[in-house]
Design brief:
Blueprint (H helix, E strand, L loop, with lengths): L2 H17 L12 H15 L2 H14 L4 H13 L3 H14 L4 H13 L3 H14 L4 H13 L3 H17 L3 H18 L4
Helix pairs in contact: 1-6, 1-8, 2-3, 2-4, 3-4, 4-5, 4-6, 5-6, 6-7, 7-8, 8-9, 9-10
Length: 192
């Protein structure tokens, strides 16, 4: 399996768990649209992606300007393999909420899976404009830059991600990236 693909797959799994926040299904005062959004989000977390899409379709139908519903819909579609549909959902979320960093991140991630690396880098650039402390965006952009042969840019991004993970107390991510960086360096500079 391609090293970049492994990194992206692990990052996508972690991102889904971090960006989708489950809400109580029967919380007092939820509108029908909010209930569908909460149920769809919960189903994504439970691995019921088809069910999630169905509920999120309803949430979007009831409230078409809910950027979070479009983003979560895109995440479910991406996991089910509908990458182009997912990008459409992320595009719609960004039309509604142009400063929605998570939607840029997710779109960049899916674009990288489609090997549209320049567009993915552009999305990660936007995430970092909106949130300069986003270690995951630095990490992903660095991996893509490495894949494209921009080893200097990759080194800067991966170094920044390592520092951010450390200062943010994300020790597992920090150690994982330190190990990945060692592997990348050994690929670039093999010891004879």
């Amino acid at each position: 399996m391609n090293f970049l693909y492994q990194v992206i797959l692990v990052s996508l799994t972690a991102l889904i768990l971090l960006t989708i926040q489950a809400q109580p299904l029967q919380a007092a005062g939820l509108t029908q649209s909010e209930d569908f959004l909460a149920r769809g989000t919960t189903k994504v977390l439970a691995g019921d992606y088809g069910g999630a899409i169905s509920d999120l379709d309803q949430a979007i139908q009831n409230h078409p300007n809910d950027a979070k519903a479009h983003m979560n819909h895109g995440l479910a579609r991406a996991i089910l393999g509908d990458k182009k549909g997912a990008i459409g959902d992320f595009n719609r979320a960004l039309q509604i909420s142009p400063k929605f960093a998570e939607a840029y991140y997710n779109r960049g991630f899916v674009r990288s899976e489609l090997q549209d690396y320049e567009a993915a880098i552009s999305d990660f650039d936007q995430v970092l404009r909106l949130n300069p402390q986003d270690a995951d965006a630095c990490h992903c952009r660095g991996i893509i830059r490495h894949q494209l042969g921009d080893h200097q840019g990759a080194s800067v991004d991966l170094g920044a991600a390592i520092n951010l993970y450390f200062t943010q107390g994300k020790i597992e991510a920090y150690q994982g990236l330190v190990n990945q960086t060692k592997k990348l360096r050994s690929q670039l500079f093999p010891v004879s």
